[in-house]
Fold this protein.
Amino acid sequence: MTNETKVKELGTVSIRFSGDSGDGMQLAGNIFSNLSAVLGNEIITFPDFPAEIRAPHGTLSGVSGFQVNVGSKKVHTPGDKTDVLVAMNPAALKVNAGFLNSDSVVIIDSDSYTQKDLEKALFQTEDPFKELGLNSVQVVAAPITTMCKDCLADLGDNKQALRSRNIFALGLVCWLFNRPVDVAEHMLKEKFGKKPAVLDANLRVLNAGFNYGHNIHATVSTYRIETTPSEKGFYTDINGNKAVAYGLIAAAEKAGLQLFLGSYPITPATDIMQELAARKELGVKVVQAEDEIAGICTAIGASFAGSLAATNTSGPGLALKSEAIGLAVMAELPLVVVDVQRSGPSTGMPTKSEQTDLMQALYGRNGESPAVVMSAISPTDCFDAAYWASKLALEHMTPVILLTDGYLANGSSAWRIPDLEKYPEIKPNYVPKGLENWKPYLRDPETKVRYWAVPGTEGFTHRIGGLEKDFTTSIISTNPENHQLMVDTRQAKIDKIADFIPEQEVLGDKDADTIVIGWGGTYGHLCEAIENVQAAGKKVALAHFRFINPLPKNTEEILSKYKKAIVIEQNNGQFANFLRSKIHGFDPYQFNRVKGQPFMVARLVEEIEKIMISD
Amino acid sequence: MNIQYSPKDFKSPQLVRWCPGCGDHAVLNCLHKAMAEIGVAPHNTAVISGIGCSSRLPYYMNTYGFHTIHGRGAAIATGVKVANPELSVWLSTGDGDSLAIGGNHFIHAVRRNVDINIILMNNKIYGLTKGQYSPTSDRGFVCKSSPYGTVEDPFRPAELTIGARGRFFARAIDVDLKNTPDIMVAAAKHKGTSVIEVLLNCVIFNDGIYDNIVSKEFRAEKTIMLRHGEKMIFGENDDKGIVLEGFTLKAVTIGQNGYTLNDVLVHDAHAIDPTLHLKLALMDGENFPVALGVIRDVEAEVYDVEVEKQIAEVQAKNPARTLKDFLMQGEVWEVK
């Protein structure tokens, strides 16, 4: 019967682990993606979980998912559709039905598809597949609960047996993908090493799952994904939030400064704080403050005192921090503000991702209050972006708002541990030796950046603050001419940063008629979309922006070359409008979706092609 | 080498712009004096403030200074101190700045016990916005924003401080140029958050608010200067004292109604139990004298010290000092 098992060789395969939010789907997904990365695959992951920590068991609102796209070539996205779905209960099947292809493999725990389970998931009939119109999917119905209980019967611990269902499913998926179980075993040892009983149970169940797949000779497709060698070096698995934390650490190391984070827990940004709070061996100081405002204000205090200071938050928190960002603008202190964007307005959908804070980051302050705004474009790019944000803040004495998003924050991929020697220097704008007539707001005449004198340094005592200061004397001033001069100077300082950031790159066909424009976390989807358009024999270019304020110097030159420009973003056109305001006569097409979910590449391709052929 | 500083070493050249007669002038002078005595160099001193009349103070100090935004001074001062515990960090603030808009930061700074010295100038009024009631204004207080009197009870800063587990609370009066600098010195010596409430007169919008307590005429009878280890005695002729009967304090005249000097309480500012400190701090000037001086001064773990201690402990166990060291300790795989 083994012969009936078809082996599919695929460039990329997308797998989604899905179940109750307490079922351990994130862990199973994580282990599977890590072991794929260890085996040399490209991976992109996308955890999709509810805001409720433990929603009612078996209900639609409690479904938690983890999708990973595994490939032999460059993988850009977690995949529109899923080739293999693990659905631990009927609710998981229902929620994810829309992601299935006609021939996807669906693994279910048949023990949890009882009448009661079906009712909880609001099914009307006894056949959930038929009811959902899933007539041709390949179902592996395994009595996972029973088998976990049997496998661990000697422990007499039913709870542990139930808790291990995720690992049984993982074992089954490993079989499906011809993945050696020992790599998974190694990862479980890392995870549960300190709890021998739990580890033992999980190892037994993992093997039981793998053997089950082998023994039933299921007549479903199994997969083999080719592995390709990557650039030499050491690799680890990293998500966007960790990458931000490491980028900040790297920048502090390069600048020779202490790293300080002032923060307040908020989904989906909290992991950045947690990672940094754990990095005491590297001397990182973290204050979990009493609120968002204190988060940024402790950071501003630390910046005043001479640290590389940062705060991290999400949209609602950025709103609370806006007055303090204005203070950092006025006091001209270095500060990194990381906004891990989520669906809004107000509390919105905290665990879902969007790009809707751009205008808030650019303009959400009183007064003429220019700050640097930039974005990260992939989970691993969060490292470089945080590094750059720190560099610009320290060298240009300004707050820098770094926009990532929930998709990047929780998405992960394999990351080559970087050689910091190859990263650009970070030189804070300290008062140069021998400078005469120093005043706190005395500036570098070219960059307009004021010189940084750090408390504790003899000879430089000074007072700064939120009140307007005289350009020359640095004393409080309400002189109208001076205010105009200071407003212009603060703006010129930010504009000048365009000279210090990389020029904008264009990907795809530079000689195309149409250019797709994006920014931030949608990079993977846009890349894949234009590759698909190109694969259909059409020419298209892509400009994906990391730096937004100021824009790269060559922005206008690039964008004016194309007959058609399409700005694609997960908001109602915030970047498109920003570009309109910055580039005279620029009027792009727009494609906007605000659903809290990543783009579907197929939908993007359709939209791009439609605009390309329109008049 | 110990450098002797004088008050003028801490004076900035900037013109002081408070109203003539404002109590803030006196606080400023006392702080100059206190800092000279404390002996920390001006360049190792940082004075932080929020917004309000009292928050202008950093401009008049020849130290590092940061005039920030309304209510947030305690959070910013926390950041300064945690980032660089070597600095002597002060917060100059008022009743509106610290107890209204900045109430949250105030109580949490106190709770954390970060080593900052908070000078809370309490004039029971918003001065800079020209005369609205503050969270310390008495019930029924009539002003521009309460033309028929307020219908709310005030915060009592001592109660709030002790409620937030405050380890140091002192009270001073603006016009007392003799004792106030000493109280500031004691606050600086205390490791952890120190709160000094200064009863302060606003000559423009709330003139004379404390006259019946602090004026020369009443001061001896209406205030008591508490000193650790000394009997709680007050009055023109030092003939009155505070005694404890059951759970209740009582102000008595020594030699009358059978009370002797032996009955008078001895002030123990270091008592960990805050009950008596709170009772003393809440004495209201009606049936009791208002308590001045260091009312509570208790040692406890200091936040910024603990932060550094934890780092040192982890570093003693883990040799990683660079990001790369750390990453290589984790789960990595090599592509050759």
